Known about the structure:
The protein is of the alpha/beta class. Helices cover 26% and strands 21% of the residues. The chain contains 12 helices and 19 strands. The protein has helices at 35-42, 48-58, 79-95, 117-128, 146-150, 166-181, 210-222, 255-271, 283-293, 320-327, 341-350, 429-433, and strands at residues 2-9, 62-64, 68-70, 100-105, 134-138, 154-157, 187-193, 228-232, 246-252, 301-305, 333-339, 355-360, 376-386, 389-391, 401-403, 407-411, 415-420, 444-447, 463-467. The strands form 4 sheets. Strands 12-13-16-17-11-18-10-19 form an 8-stranded mixed beta sheet. Strands 1, 2, 3, 4, 5 and 6 form a 6-stranded parallel beta sheet that branches. The radius of gyration is 22 Å and the shape is globular. The two termini are 43 Å apart. Zinc ion binds next to loops.
Amino acid sequence: MRLLLATLSHETNTFSPVPTKIERFCRDATTLLSGRVAVDFYRGTGTCMGGFLAVADEIGADIVVPVCASAPPSGPVDSEAYETFCRMITDAVAVGGFDALWLELHGAMVTEHFDDGEGELLRRIRAIDPDTPLCVAYDMHANVFDAMVGNAQIVAGYHTYPHVDQRQTAERAARALLRVMQREVKPTSAWGAAPMLPHVMAQGTHQAPNKDLQAMCAAWEASGRALAASLFVGFPHADVEMAGLSAVVVTDNDPADAQAKVDELLGFAWKARREFMFDIEPLETSVRRAKQLGAPGRLPVVLLDHYDNCASGGTMDTTDTLREIIRQDLDDVVFFGIYDPDAVQRAIQAGVGATVTLSIGAKLPMPLLPVASTPLTVTGTMQTISAGSFRLKGGLTPGLQLFMGPTVVLDTGKVQIVLLSRHIEPTAQEMLQILGIDPSRKKYVAIKSRVHWRADLGKIAREIVECAGVGVCTSDYAQLTFRKLRRPLFPLDPCLQWNQPA
Ligand SMILES: [Zn+2]
């Protein structure tokens, strides 16, 4: 059996000023992964590609990997980058000779010219090769358009957020497609969207209602009542028509049942729509509350600077939450982190042990946001310099090599500030441990994260305090101007009544 495996993954925050050019899709400063290098990089890891490779190895398939391109979330994908990656995939498809195409796509990629980056890629593939069986593993944050479903036999989305089942999702998609290829099953799919935009802070599968929705999907799959069932919570920081919640169900030769299951998921989500909302507390109140909760010798209070999560397109350089932590004089804090490659270089030049004063953050203007952050001047001792490269043992993607880029820790005496050269969401204790910091022994762990931190840092959180700082992942939708998003939509239109199609 001969298989084409490829990854093209980007979650696009259309409000983000962070550019998305080819270099951002490279695994380190220069390496765009394809062929044998990609296989070696991903084999054995807890990623979608790791899952595809595991199944391919199991059946002894010959594999061709034209590209594995994935980048941290940021602004719309540059046309040159998008066309380059699409061509790498479609050129391979055009050569032909494949028994199946297994794709890892995010599902919320917006490019300079296409609001539905994944659908456009699939349309191009199908224009060249309308018949070869094709499966897609999507992120749970996919904003689903018709072409993303109609051009694949099997569509499978993650069932967890934090996304700890990436590998399993790809395995489920691949195994279901193998059954299709063996003519054991005949896939029939349905999909639909509910007019709602679930809040990211309320999307975690550690809590209702998404926990229950994903359990419904998993139960149908486990009992064989669906070949694949996926509830996509959607990615709200994208001004595209179909941002929001949707469901895709693939059954064995029963389109009516696929539609019934989609309707059941959408109906359940709509009834629970208020549980998908999130209440905002003023920053000053949150930090004061965190200060009162802190206790030496006990596990830390975790402060979430969630408006500026780089894994949702944030610049990771807004300073407002850090500034408030310093202003209210919290002590024994680690703050991960501020993205500021220039400050990192200046700190490295000063060297470990030096006392330095740096102006950090707020280097990336956010023109689509009505509020701005400002640089923060801090003085401290240079504590650590790290290359920032290591292999993750646990957390979101066990076994994956991470590249944080040159990273330093500046200790103000009360706050250890991590300064970074690449956008990376703090999710694992290891990310701090390699910098010489044991987060479990800190009084406060302040991180630019929303939900993924729960994958590993969640194990040590005694209390959680959400901090409404500044950033393009704002929880205050009033700060965002939507032009293309379909309306009416809950909660932007809070009184919306939806008569779900019968
Ligand atoms: Zn996601």
